Amino acid sequence: MLGFYLNLLIFSIGLLELAWGISACVREKDASEYRGFVMVFTAFSSMVCCGYGFMGLIPDVSKAFIPRFFGLWGCLGLILSEMAIIIYDMDFKPLTKLILVNIAPVFGFTDLFLHGRRGVNTYIRHDFYNSFELSDKRFILFHYIFLIVVGTILLVMSVRWYKRKKIKREKRFVAQIIASNLVLFLSVFPAIFPSLFFKNYPTITYSIAFSINFVIWMRALRQKMSFNMTLKNVSEGIFYKIDIPVIIISESGEISLFNPSAQKFLELDENADSLGIRDIFTITDVETLLLKAKAKKGEDYQLKLSVKANGKNCLLKCAVQQDYAGEPFCIIGTILPLEELD
Q: Cα(158)–Cα(174) distance, rounded to whole angstroms?
């Protein structure tokens, strides 16, 4: 039963990776270039675990080579994708780039065809799970040479990548990639020198290694995307550092957020909570109703008001922010002191 649960776990991890990657792509809509790599990594990594896991679970062993082929395809896709992102980020010489971009995929797809064919392995049905033994040993040397050569190239490229980085967070990003490559490189050796355990569970080391690789890459890419020059990443800094009072007002008229400049101008307590617009400004019932009505229609509006705490006169410029469905959900209020306008 251990084999059944291990393969079920591997298959489940593949589904979790797919869900994680889709969620990451939905969240990070501005970082288009790295978002694309996340989608590619997610697709190939889920193919590895789902393919190998389903190969170990499928009742008909005569069909087990099909999910294994998809698992191998996922392994190759992840390796080539990693090479692509390193080539994309590094300024390689044209000849080096030409060799890597053209020869590596040819080498890889040749190995996929030779090692993923139907007659390469003999599939064995155990109690509730499958394993396989190599039956055609003619091309196994090519397969191991491919794994060792590509693993070495990735390690060398990653070290060079690390040396070229000057910023600490960039070096930390690449260091995580080197760690993931070491995990992949070490996962080859149990397959070359199998023990009894690995003979019964031949894909377990690859599945675990590529899952760890996926987690490390996803964490590294998320950190990378967090420091991209996108509107999402800089807007929070602008909100808190700009020397203009800004308040965020809900449709019901409550102050949800305010920046330090607004806190100083309105003389608000830092931990102020559940403040209504009438608690801060001297505003009539008619003006309050008009402001709410404009907000519901998605129309911008401005009012001349005075601050209750200090009596300062100001112009409150209200811009309605809409959600993805085009419905208004908050008001961005910019406060301009009338003394400065005069």
A: 7
CB neighbour list of residue 65: distance below 8 Å, 6 or more residues apart: 55, 116, 117, 118, 120, 121, 123
> Would you give the end-to-end CA distance of the chain in angstroms?
81
Compute the distance between CA of residue 314 and CA of residue 52 in angstroms, rounded to an integer: 66
Q: What is the pLDDT of residues 152-166, one digit of tens each?
A: 888 888 888 888 888
Geometric angle at alpha carbon 98, from 93 and 100, rounded to 5°: 95
Q: Is the pTM of this model over 0.85?
A: no
Whose structure tokens read 């080579």? 65
Lowest pLDDT segment from 147-156, 208-217, 303-312: 147-156
Strand order in the sheet with 328-337: 275-276, 254-258, 246-249, 328-337, 313-322, 301-307, 281-282
Sequence-ordered list of residues with C-beta below 8 angstroms from that of 228, at least 6 positions apart, any chain: 30, 31, 34
- Report the phi/psi class of residue 314: left, alpha or beta, with left for phi > 0 and alpha for psi in -120 to 50: beta
DSSP 8-state assignment for residue 259: -
pLDDT for 28:
65
User: CA-CA distance, 48 to 68, in Å (whole number)?
Assistant: 8
Distances (CA, A) of 288 to 35, 137, 247, 254, 293: 43, 81, 16, 11, 9
CB atoms within 10 A of CB 156: 11
Residue 132, strand partner residues? 123
Alpha helices (H) in 90-203, listed in sequence order: 94-115, 140-164, 168-192, 196-200
Task: Measure the CA–CA gap between 214 and 200, rounded to whole angstroms.
Answer: 25
Residues whose CB falls within 8 Å of the CB of residue 224, separated by 6 or more in sequence, listed in order: 34, 173
Token digits of residue 293: 């009505």
Interatomic CA distance for residues 11 and 7, integer angstroms = 6
Contact 254, 280 (CB under 8 A): no
Structure tokens at 162: 């690390």
